[in-house]
């Protein structure tokens, strides 16, 4: 049994939906398949905007977004289904009517609750279209509502998974469909569900945080102990750097879970760290493949550490601030002073990217934030003399090699450097 996850870019128009169907058809013969799908194209962003206007009572703008989102989905459906009598149109009509009906009433006061109620429509309608299209092209399937599979607490917009209940409900509902058909044992079964969504035991819809669909795929794979998860993306696989930031990149063909978790920890955005832990726990391999070039091998993440150090990987963070603190009372930087410093960072919710201490100073690098940074500096300034630098870049290099690091630095100034056996971090400033 395998789990495939397709993101929004893979279903942004009729042709891309056809492409997804072709990928499913080509892989389906190998055994039962669960397909986890995101909202189409940039629908989640548009629904977020709709939700903001809903909360602010801007009825006209809200309805403009509603019409745009609805039209886009009907356009895609018209591109896929020849007859306007196809039942999918009634299904979509109903989903959009439910949303329309909901936003016609005044909003409640809990923004996060309203957000999940509204934004979840994106995944629901995308799966309704894909499921009907697969049916039409001879790929019978069952559509399941993720709300009833992935059970969460009521932390709307960032719901926490109830692993025990979710595992149970996923197994109970999906297992009967994932065993070979009794009547047609030749046809492996196919299940479609939404990424990003969950539900409370009371039946309220929740979301798992932006870009949460990869995580959904991992949760389902974990519950069913899948043989493999494949995330289909608009890139050929995991690259050793963001191609927008570096001229030559290489594909990481095979890295370990641990390496992938490290990369994600330092800020590589390709896979959310939450996705990796459940897979690691059950040793389920994860592939990242290109939906545009499905024939290419892509990247494989499993427990093979053999190739982890083959290529250096680069992770860039921009708009960094470097702050050095010197105790005003000339005391040393020891536990008492560190405790005060960390308390200030925790109080202002500022995450430390890199830190270094000497006898008389403590230096920290973190993301600049319009409101948090000045508030933090004010508090730190009470006990410490604070030196401050901004407009810096933080580059993390895994498995560094001197020559490539020197080339990457170019003629920039190295303001701070830290390394251990596998990882080097540099704070750089343009000259
Ligand atoms: N549709 C959601 C988002 O855009 C979830 C996802 O695609 O992973 O964040
Ligand atoms: Mg997405």
Layout of helices and strands:
Elements: E1 2-6, H1 14-28, E2 33-37, H2 43-56, H3 59-80, H4 87-104, H5 111-119, H6 121-136, E3 142-144, H7 146-149, H8 163-178, E4 190-194, E5 197-199, E6 205-207, H9 213-224, E7 228-233, E8 254-256, H10 257-265, H11 273-282, E9 286-290, E10 299-302, E11 313-327, H12 335-347, E12 352-357, E13 362-367, H13 372-380, E14 384-398, H14 402-409, E15 413-419, E16 423-429
The structure holds aspartic acid and magnesium ion.
Aspartic acid binds next to loops.
What does this structure look like?
It is built from 14 helices and 16 strands. By secondary structure, the chain is of the alpha/beta class. The protein has 2 domains: 2-233, Acetylglutamate kinase-like (Carbamate kinase, 3-Layer(aba) Sandwich), CATH 3.40.1160; 313-429, VC0802-like (2-Layer Sandwich), CATH 3.30.2130. The protein has an 8-stranded mixed beta sheet, sandwiched between helices. It has a 6-stranded antiparallel beta sheet with strand order 12-13-11-14-16-15, covered by helices on one side. Strands 5-6 form a two-stranded antiparallel ribbon. The protein is globular. The protein starts with a strand and ends with a strand. Bound molecules: aspartic acid (ASP) and magnesium ion. Aspartic acid binds at residues 7-8, 38-39, 44, 122, 195-196, 210-213. Residues 7-8, 38, 211 line the site of magnesium ion.
């Amino acid at each position: 049994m395998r789990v495939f996850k397709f993101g929004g870019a893979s279903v942004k128009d009729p042709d891309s939906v056809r492409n997804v169907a072709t990928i499913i058809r080509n892989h389906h013969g190998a055994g039962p398949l669960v397909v986890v799908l995101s909202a189409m194209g940039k629908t989640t962003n548009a629904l977020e905007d709709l939700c903001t206007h809903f909360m602010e009572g801007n009825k006209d703008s809200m309805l403009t977004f509603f019409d745009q989102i609805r039209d886009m989905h009907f356009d895609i459906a018209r591109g896929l289904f020849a007859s306007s009598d196809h039942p999918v149109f009634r299904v979509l009509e109903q989903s959009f009517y439910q949303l329309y009906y909901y936003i016609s009433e005044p909003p409640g006061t809990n923004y996060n609750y309203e957000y999940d109620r509204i934004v979840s429509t994106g995944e629901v309608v995308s799966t309704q279209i894909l499921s009907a299209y697969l049916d039409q092209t001879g790929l019978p399937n069952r559509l399941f509502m993720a709300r009833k599979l992935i059970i969460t607490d009521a932390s709307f917009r960032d719901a926490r998974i109830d692993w025990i209940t979710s595992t149970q409900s996923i197994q109970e509902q999906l297992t009967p469909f994932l065993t070979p058909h009794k009547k047609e044992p030749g046809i492996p079964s196919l299940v479609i569900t939404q990424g990003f969504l969950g539900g409370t035991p009371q039946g309220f819809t929740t979301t798992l945080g932006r870009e949460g669909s990869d995580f959904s795929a991992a949760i389902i794979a974990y519950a069913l102990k899948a043989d493999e998860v494949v995330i289909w993306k608009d890139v050929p696989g995991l690259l050793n750097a963001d191609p927008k930031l570096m001229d030559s990149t290489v594909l990481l063909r095979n890295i370990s879970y641990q390496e992938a978790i490290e990369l994600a920890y330092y800020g590589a955005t390709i896979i959310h760290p939450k996705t990796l832990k459940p897979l690691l726990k059950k040793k389920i391999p994860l592939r990242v493949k290109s939906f545009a070039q499905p024939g290419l091998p892509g990247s494989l993440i499993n427990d093979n550490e053999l190739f982890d150090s083959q290529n250096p990987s680069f992770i860039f963070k921009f708009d960094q601030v470097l702050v050095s603190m010197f105790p005003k009372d000339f005391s040393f930087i020891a536990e008492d002073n560190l405790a005060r410093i960390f308390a200030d960072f925790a109080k202002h919710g500022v995450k430390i990217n890199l830190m270094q201490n000497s006898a008389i100073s403590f230096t920290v690098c973190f993301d600049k934030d319009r409101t948090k940074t000045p508030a933090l500096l004010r508090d730190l300034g009470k006990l410490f003399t604070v030196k401050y630098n901004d407009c810096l870049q933080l580059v993390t290099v895994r498995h560094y090699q001197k020559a490539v690091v020197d080339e990457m630095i170019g003629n920039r100034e190295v303001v701070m450097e830290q390394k251990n056996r596998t990882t080097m971090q540099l704070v750089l400033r343009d000259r």
